[in-house]
Amino acid sequence: MARKPARTAADFLPERTDLTALREAAGSCQGCDLYRDATQTVFGAGDPNARVVLVGEQPGDVEDRRGEPFVGPAGGVLDRAMADAGIDRVGTYVTNAVKHFKFVPAERGKRRLHKTPGRTEIVACRPWLSAELAAVRPELLVCLGATASKAVFGPAFKLTERRGVLLPPPEEELMAGQSEAGEHVPSAILATIHPSAVLRALDRDEAYAGLVADLRVAAESLS
Fold this sequence. Notes:
It comes from Actinopolymorpha pittospori. Keywords: 4Fe-4S, DNA damage, DNA repair, Hydrolase, Iron, Iron-sulfur, Metal-binding, Nucleotidyltransferase, Transferase. GO terms for molecular function: 4 iron, 4 sulfur cluster binding; deaminated base DNA N-glycosylase activity; metal ion binding; nucleotidyltransferase activity. The protein is an alpha/beta fold and 223 residues long. It has a single domain, classed as Uracil-DNA Glycosylase, subunit E (3-Layer(aba) Sandwich). The protein has helices at residues 19-26, 61-66, 73-85, 119-136, 146-153, 159-162, 171-174, 195-200, 204-222, and strands spanning 45-46, 52-56, 93-96, 103-105, 112-114, 140-144, 166-167, 188-192. A six-stranded mixed beta sheet has the order 1-3-2-6-8-7, with helices on both faces.
């Protein structure tokens, strides 16, 4: 007996492909099992005509509860770093490679601990990112962290070796899983650390300076 193909976000993409329709449809996505425990889908947000899209790994605890991307502690770091790099967040669009919060309960208390999404979950969710790019049509994509970078470039990508420089888009990997939403490939992609890495760093000042330096490369490419 033939096995049924695994479900992905492509099964939940709407006929309309504007951001409003995509956001509404994503609210009922069951393309992977993460929806079972997450509070809600956390879709992207920002300028629908942004020249730059920033994509992170997944929503965190605060984002999961509020339903908005980058509104927790890491979002505060990102806001400050973009301002210091000369990027106006109001004119950007921010999202995540995975739209549901993956976590494990802490041994004590109600705190939920972040758990890195697996490759299956990243691939299952990728049609949403592809659809967002097709709707926004940015010139530049900024990948925040290793998970987001691998979601775009593939699992062999090494952030430590290729961060902070403008890279050509890997069309085949980026558009894999694309469905009826159309397609758009940014002119360039830049990978840097996730702002949460600054919060975990032993030397936060050094880590923050590196994030700002990378984002300045992005800002200069848009000037």
